[in-house]
Write a structure and sequence with these properties.
The complex is a heterodimer of chains A (about 450) and B (about 200). With about 450 residues, chain A is of the alpha+beta class. Helix content of chain A is about 30%, strand content about 30%. The chains are: A alpha+beta (about 450), B alpha/beta (about 200).
């Protein structure tokens, strides 16, 4: 059995089980090659995200052995067990315990333990075991140079020179080696031997911003759920406040006694952590929940957060808060992205000169001090063709079923297409006219001289 | 053409806490001029609830003459019920001084009344942009607005008050004053046939 991963248009083996390895397969092989070795190979797609999640879970689990656990690439963990080995009964006992517990979970671990991080890495990958204190150099000497965490081209280069083992490298004069391969090789060697520092950055995974409430008796009334929610959100808001964060999206998970559950998402128009204001926003969604035989667990999680500095309480902030709360309520009905505002774009083409962007995506833009243009219409619509000829506005024409007579026209104002962008209309230059009709309508029309035609695109005040 | 009269103060600006209605070819201009007046007073955002399938939209460069485009919030809804629900929510809340509702079918009495009650609760001015002859009976006032051609002016409009729950109806010729950024009412006397400035 093997896992495959698509890389640069080629499907390559990514992970193998023990049996596949004994057949001579190795990671990085292309799929046809592997099939030639083993025609009845079972293949599955690799799921890198799931691998990562497993690694994060293992990292948390590893904290039972020592407080300082870091990631090592995509497939390893590095534990700084300084001072912790004694608690597990010695280094060997700790590794044995680790192996036994992982085996219970169906995992096979390759472990290496040495004075330095580099040496432990090499041992774990090439000769699983323990290097006694001070014996790192001896343990490393018989290992291939690839165990120094070097890029593959440098490994090949070293092998060409006959330097196949770390022991060979360690006794080679350093000057020529540095001239030939740069400092990288020597630095890695020094790290492995402990001459250069190689710290483990043990970043604790951020605790999820979630709180849970388990109930002794199932509840089913909306008011009960809201009361439970009130307790949850106070705890969640305290968590958020402690980290100067505000929630942008919340999920309320409700678990029913029969095991079924539902998740109620809530997207907020602005980062928020005020307990009093979050509760009413959930009211609409909670009412639609089917409680079945009752709900016995509630979980409130802030799935998306944004920095939110403490604000001074003032009247202007209160107005903005009310508006944000209103937009959230509207957004919970029609989707927060459907509440939009204008944003100017850098284009002369009228229909490309602005965009409607979600209003909640950022703060209100600064007022645009653009001059007022009486030569621009108040409303704009997609160009509607009008049957007419000539390059000056037609005297009579029909538009939207109305017979119109031109009384006054001003123009033309030529707007050239943007050659670097696609011309949606495909008609090239446009000569815009303001056409005032005797019937009253004041239209923004344009003529396209390159492919003759007349269009109406807007209406004036 | 001298601006002599003004619109009656009890009609204009539109009475707050009520929902009004406007129709006709210049309905959008009427609505946005109302926004302009609201903007001057409150300094807050406006909401325009519109169906998302409608491709005709305010043009920011032209809109800037009336209100700053970034102060106009636009809620795009997939269906009429959503439009009404959003409008009711916004009217009731009262944090927006002016809500513009673009409807596509006649509202029945219940829907019109709900909007009216919501506007009352929030003290908000609501204005429905309705298609021709598709008004609701619950509206406080109903206006019909059309552009009028005039020989020397490019913004002349005829605003007709077709329905008024608390007063008489009427008709006014108005024009937008680009210099002063305000609405001028053209004296009815000057529009009389044979008068000095007959439009058209």
């Amino acid at each position: 059995m093997a896992l495959i991963l698509r890389q640069n248009n080629a499907q390559r083996l990514y992970g193998l089980n023990a049996e596949a390895e004994t057949l001579g397969l190795r990671p990085g092989m292309t799929l046809p090659e592997a099939r030639a070795y083993c025609p009845d190979l079972i293949l599955r797609d690799a799921d890198l995200a799931a691998d990562r999640r497993l690694l994060v879970a293992l990292q948390r689990w590893s904290m039972r052995y020592c407080p300082w656990v870091g990631f090592d690439g995509d497939d390893g963990l590095v534990l700084d067990i300084t001072g912790s080995a004694g608690l597990a009964g010695g280094e060997a006992a700790m590794l044995a315990d680790m192996q036994a517990r992982a085996a219970q979970a169906g995992l096979s671990l390759r472990t290496g333990l040495a004075d330095t991080r580099g040496a432990a890495w090499a041992l774990a990958r090439f000769a699983p075991g323990i290097a006694a204190p001070g014996q790192g150099a001896q343990a490393l000497a018989p290992l291939p140079v690839a165990a120094l965490r070097l890029p593959s081209d440098q490994v090949t280069g070293l092998q060409r020179l006959g330097l196949r083992r770390i022991g060979d490298l360690a006794v080679t004069p350093r000057g020529p080696l540095a001239r030939r391969f740069g400092r990288g090789v020597l630095d890695q060697l020094d790290r492995a031997l402990g001459h250069l520092p190689d710290p483990v950055s043990g970043q604790a995974p951020p605790a999820p911003l979630a709180v849970r409430l388990t109930l002794p008796e199932p509840i089913g009334l909306v008011s009960d759920v809201m009361a439970g929610l009130e307790r949850l959100r106070e705890r969640l808001c305290a968590l958020l406040r402690a980290r100067d964060l505000g929630a942008r999206a919340l999920v309320l998970g409700l678990r029913r006694v029969d095991g079924a559950g539902c998740e109620l998402p809530l997207h907020l128009a602005a980062p928020m952590r005020d307990p009093a204001r979050i509760l009413p926003l959930f009211a609409r969604t909670v009412e639609g929940v089917d409680a079945g035989f009752g709900i016995d667990q509630m979980r409130l999680e802030a799935v998306r957060v944004e920095p939110l500095a403490p604000l001074q309480i003032g009247s202007s902030a209160a107005g903005a808060d009310r508006l944000d709360a209103l937009l959230t309520r509207i957004g919970s009905r029609i989707g927060l992205d459907n509440i939009r505002r204008f944003r100017p774009l850098d284009s002369h083409i009228p229909e490309k000169s602005f965009a409607l962007v979600p209003a909640a995506s950022g703060p209100a833009p600064a007022p645009d001090p653009a001059p007022i243009r009486p030569d621009r219409p108040l409303t704009l619509f997609p160009p509607e063709p009008v049957v007419a000829r000539g390059s000056t506005p037609p005297l009579r024409f029909r538009w939207r079923g109305m017979a119109l007579t031109t009384a006054r026209a001003s123009g033309p104002e030529r707007i050239a297409p943007e050659w670097w962008a696609e011309d949606d209309l495909g008609r090239g230059l446009r000569d815009y006219w303001k056409v005032e009709t005797r019937q009253g309508r004041r239209l923004w029309m344009f003529h396209t001289p390159q492919r003759p035609g007349w269009f109406v695109q807007g209406e004036f005040l | 053409m001298t601006p002599t009269t003004s619109l009656p103060a009890d009609l204009f600006p539109l009475r707050a806490g009520r929902v009004h209605e406007v129709t006709g070819p210049a309905a959008a201009a009427f609505a946005l001029i109302q926004c302009h007046r609201g903007a001057r007073v409150e300094g807050a955002a406006m909401l325009w609830v519109r169906p998302s399938w409608n491709a005709a939209i305010a043009f920011p460069q032209g809109l800037a003459a009336l209100i700053a485009p970034e102060r106009l919030l636009i809620a795009e809804t997939a269906q009429e019920t959503d439009t009404l629900a959003v409008a009711e929510e916004a009217l009731k809340d009262g944090s927006l001084p002016f809500v513009l509702i673009q409807t596509t079918r006649p509202l029945n009495l219940r829907e019109g009344r709900r909007l009216q009650l919501a506007a009352q609760a929030g003290g908000t001015t609501g204005l429905c942009l309705t298609p021709q002859d598709m008004g609701s009976n619950a509206a406080q006032t109903r206006w019909h607005c059309a552009p009028v051609f005039s020989a020397e002016d490019s913004t002349l409009m005829l605003w007709e008050l077709k329905k008024n729950k608390s007063g008489t109806s009427g008709a006014w010729h108005v024009r937008w004053n680009w210099q002063a950024h305000r609405l001028d009412v053209v004296s009815p006397a000057s529009l009389r046939p044979g008068g000095p400035d007959l439009p058209g």
